[in-house]
Structure formats: C-alpha cells, structure tokens
Write a structure and sequence with these properties.
about 220 residues; alpha+beta; Jelly Rolls; 4 helices; disordered C terminus
C-alpha cells in the first residue's frame, strides 16, 4: 500500500506583492517521524563534499558542506520522499533531485544571496526541510544591497526554522529578495537543509555567471 501524502499546514509571510515564504513548523514530527533520527540518517547517508565558489577573482571554499540526491536514487530516510510528494501535491509542480547543505557547527554560514543559477527567477519555488539546531534564516529586499540610505540594509525578516520545520520561498522571491544563513550569536550544533527547487522558466533569464563560475575579462574591447 502506498504511503499517504501528507497535508501541509503552512503559515504564509507575504514579503511583497509577488514574493512570499510559507512555513510549516514541526512538519517532520507531524509525519510521525523523530527529527533527530532523520537528521542522523541524512548526515550519515549523504556523500558530503566541500563546494567552491569564485569570489574576489579567486576560488574559495564554501563555509559549509554540500551533497546531492539525484532523481531515482534511494533516499537515506523515507521522510525525504514523503516531503517531496507533499510539496508537489500542495503546489501542483514537479521536482527533480534534492540537494543538501550541511552547516557543521556555528562557524559555518552562507551570506545573503539569490539562487541565480536557476536563471528564470520571476516565478520559482524553493522548499527547504530543516533538520538540526535552530539557526537564523535571513531575508532582505535585493534593493537594500545597493541603497546605502535604506533604514534596514541588512536582513528584514528572520524565519528561524527549527528542527523538522519546512519552509518554501515562492513567487518572485529569487528575483527581488536575498536569503542567507548567518553565523549565530551563540554556539550551535549541526544543521542540515534538504532543498527542492522549481522554476516556471517564465520571464527574462538572468544573464551572467554565478558565484559557481569564474568571470573572464577581456581587453579586446
């Protein structure tokens, strides 16, 4: 018998007229699973790798670990399949593989950014299942990055997902807003996020390299 598809009880934070974040607190527990067991299974079952990005005209290590579960691969815990089916039914879209980010302790972090590598950013969904210690999850309007007179040039929203929470960024969030996981004010343990992404491929695609590709300069012009 097939496993029933979970019903998600989201609370929505409307960021602006076209951008929003949905939050389902305690999602994993609501499925009848122990979030600590899921965390341990994912931590031990994913082949973690050190990612690199191109910044300041050189390659640097990302301050976190990354992993990938490709479509069709067996998940280290059934809750990953249950989560994917639940968000697919809730939003009426299909997801492919699942990527992972592992913040090993309070020293790991990720600066404010957009997922520009999705290219089409006008209508996207990024779902994150968060496991482990609670950490800040900041969002800010993209315009604040360039406006030195903005009253809140830093983060204006902190979703702060905890152990077993599910969050989804949607609409034009990747076009107009930035998100990041800063270092917490006090020491914490590990935090893992499983991530599913979808884009409608509508609108104008982003032009230019992302932080995962080097810039090439030419003097021929």
């Amino acid at each position: 018998m097939a496993t029933p598809v979970a019903t998600i009880a989201f609370e929505r934070a409307q960021l602006d007229d076209a951008c929003w974040v949905d939050v389902a607190r305690g999602f994993v527990g609501g499925l009848g699973h122990d979030p600590s067991e899921v965390y341990a299974a994912v931590r031990d079952g994913i082949a973690w790798q050190q990612g690199r990005v191109f910044r300041y005209e050189r390659w640097i290590d990302e301050p976190r670990m990354g992993g990938m579960l490709r479509q069709g691969q067996q998940a280290p815990h059934i809750v990953l399949d249950e989560t994917r089916r639940a968000i697919e039914r809730h939003y009426g879209v299909g997801f492919g593989g699942c990527s992972f980010a592992y913040y090993r302790d309070h020293s790991d972090s990720m600066g404010l950014h957009r997922d520009r590598d999705m290219r089409w950013l006008d209508d996207t969904l990024i779902a994150l299942l968060v496991l482990g210690d609670r950490r800040p999850f900041h969002l800010r309007p993209r315009a604040n990055r360039y406006d030195h007179d903005a009253p809140h040039r830093g983060a204006t929203v902190d979703v702060a997902p905890g152990h077993g929470d599910l969050i989804v960024m949607g609409g034009a969030c990747q076009d107009r807003w930035e998100h990041g996981v800063p270092r917490p004010a006090t020491p914490t343990g590990g935090r893992i996020s499983a991530q599913w992404r979808w884009t409608s491929r509508q609108g104008r695609p982003v032009v230019g390299a992302s932080y995962r590709a080097p810039r090439h300069f030419s003097r021929s012009r």
